[in-house]
Amino acid sequence: MSDPAASVPRVTRAEYVQEALAGLDRAAGTGVDPALPLYATTFVVVDLETTGGAPDGGGITEIGAVKVRGGEELGVLATLVNPGVPIPPFITVLTGITQAMLLPAPPIEQVLPSFLEFITDAVLVAHNAPYDVGFLKAACARHGYPWPNPRVLDTAALARRVLTRDEVPNRKLGTLAAYFRTATQPTHRALDDAKATVDVLHGLIGRLGGHRVDTVGEAIEFARAVTPTQRRKRHLAEGLPKVPGVYIFRAADDRPLYVGTSGDIATRVRSYFTAGEKRARISEMLAAAERVEAVECAHSLEAEVRELRLIAAHAPPYNRRSKYPERQVWLKLTDEAYPRLSIVRDLAPTDSAYLGPFRSKQAAELAAAGFHDAVPLRQCTHRLSRRTTMPACALAELGRCPAPCEHRITPEEYDQRAAVPFRTATRDDPQVVVDALLARIEVLSGARRYEEAAVVRGRLAAVLRAAVRMQRLAALTGIAELAAARPAARGGWELALVRHGRLAGAGVSPPGVHPRPTINAIRATAETVLPGHGPVPAATAEETERILSWLERPETRLVETSAGWASPIAGAGRFRDLLTKAENGASHQLSTERS
Questions:
Q1: pTM value?
Q2: Residues 71, 162: one domain?
Q3: Potential cystine with 145: which of 140, 324, 364, 374 (Cβ 3.0-4.6 Å)?
Q4: What stretch or stretches form a coiled coil here (predicted)?
């Protein structure tokens, strides 16, 4: 016979954390397919006797486990365990286990390898499972064995969902054993209690058919606190594909209620009907949903892009993000003798100096305030003439404006001092603006005017954030066509064809086949994308950013491109570290960044 310990690797310096008990509510290991029918599932029903107290890696005095499948007993594991500590008298009275019985028994570290091998590829079942599983996980952590994280079914929780108070007064094991007339009665000994729990489990499974619970995954979720709406609408998740794509919850009138994306549509949609889904708005959405539509995609990038486009097109009421891309705004330099900054919804083909897009007017105003702090751009909204003058405002008296309204500065000088720094900062190098704002922060901090320094710091962050984002977008959207490939999880390549920052085509080449024919087919059927004006001429900024994130992953390979993909060597991207500090509020460090 092989040594079980040899097949169970130890881990170094493992630690048990009490929070691990909450893991019963999270996704478990992948050893058992949740779609497996209950009659075909292998269960290991376990019960422990302990010295009492909290799980600390010891305290186990007896383990009893019974392996069953389809109502047939497949194996039994039972052993006393020497806890290495005295047995409290009340435990001896309760269980009949004495100190003399435990002295020759093996310690838990010798029992664990056999037990872990016994539960391999099985669903772990226990009555009040958090207690038993907590002791087992703590013992594994203490003695260096990785916990296999099996799926766990709690018969006590299942009984609370299946049986009413009219049928049983409580959900104690003894009460349930009497109700189901189990062949073995619980005696506070591990093997007897485990055998009684087996019969209780079979009795509860017999009641699940009336609740349309047929698989082990459904049984585990049914035992948790799902709402009646989730239980009633669970059928909406049936028949969906296990592929990447987009799912759409639709109302009775076919109106989209919610749009989401996943690498596995079927698994993701099923999660909406589990205890893990606790969002109030999603519960409201499920009550109104009548069907779920699946849109299969080649890979995750296509799914993300399709989700964004569907949300933008339909504005589903239960989606919060990406609903109104048309609400983006721009900060542009007006075309006047003495230009000023203006916040606009759209860019005209003649606009040549601009920054954005911003997700809100407030973000654009914050960046505009940063430029006003750094360069002498006028802030009034009058249209100034080269010939006639107007009275100056208070900003001119305070030295915050060169007073072009009174012609104290020529249009040429104003352009060099105020307009050129804006154009340079947005297109290429924001060094002049950054230096001016850092100098102002240093002066304010030196005068202990920290709140004002924090305001300027926020404006600096807004300017850099927008400049970095726009230059990053423009670098990709200026390319007429780019093809890229990324290794697929199951072999082959995920392929994307990008035109002017818009996903024009996507596909997957099968394993062992050269991807060139697939790329040619994608190109032949790809969307035609015409060039346009601005850094996002053909798609939303969010779509282009999703594509950028996919392209910038280390495993992604550029196949071919119609032009060079590059950013300005002295562009805003070189201030990323400064932007991070500004966003994190490290104003006391910013004065050292001047160069």
A1: 0.69
A2: yes
A3: 140
A4: none
